[in-house]
Amino acid sequence: LRVKFELGLFDNAMPDKSLMANFGKAEHQKIALEAARESIVLLKNQNNILPLPKNKKVLVTGPTADSLISLNNGWTYVWQGSEASLYPKDKPTIQKAIEEKLGGKNFEFVQGTHIVRKPNSTSNNNPTDIDEEVNVKKAVDEAKDADYIVLCLGEGSYTEHPGDISDLTLPEIQLKFAEAIIETGKPVVLVLAEGRPRIINRIADKVSAILLALNPGNEGGRAVTDVIFGDYNPNGKLPFTY
């Protein structure tokens, strides 16, 4: 309340409409990108596999690879953050940002699995939290031909009571998919787009690198990509052991 008083919200509860002209300016987007970069935590980098070279073939796969929902989470465009159509079309997901960075020759994307909302449910009141297989076999087949794999796992969107869970372990569908990708023997960079520290004990020791992206916002796709390919040195830190 003190902050609201200091901002004068109790003197004039309706904001000045002229301030809308400042919304989404280029300088603000630049700050958002920098904040997203600074928030990324490098949890593992075995044999200094990161940054990846830009002249090798990279497969991007996983349920959070092509999702602005996963980069933003709840309390964004709707309460549960689960309406994909409301997200800006000019902001790249992780896979699209990597494609922009590498070009088509060294880039391949296969979904593998995805996270969806309950069928026939309203986006405002229902989280995006149902994991489903899409084309796991195709993803595994493509992984065999790649030099590196960027595996994007994590969560969809949720907030408050609808997002409550009783187990922090990553969903079984995601873990099994990760194990199938890992079994190809190719180096795997695991990217976690999530609002909570989900348990990944089954796969943590089997991947070459782990990036904790958390929910970096609409600039998160570019931020994650910059870290993976060495255009930004990750310096985020955690107040807990993960």
UniProtKB/TrEMBL annotation:
Segments forming a coiled coil: none
Biological processes annotated in GO: glucan catabolic process
EC number: 3.2.1.21
Gene Ontology terms, MF aspect: beta-glucosidase activity
InterPro entries: Cellulose_Degrad_GH3 (IPR051915), Glyco_hydro_3_C (IPR002772), Glyco_hydro_3_C_sf (IPR036881)
Pfam families assigned: Glyco_hydro_3_C
Record's catalysed reaction(s): Hydrolysis of terminal, non-reducing beta-D-glucosyl residues with release of beta-D-glucose
Record keywords, A-Z: Glycosidase, Hydrolase, Signal
Name of the protein in its database record: beta-glucosidase
Domain Glycoside hydrolase family 3 C-terminal intervals: 40-241
Protein family (similarity comment): Belongs to the glycosyl hydrolase 3 family.
Enzyme class: hydrolase
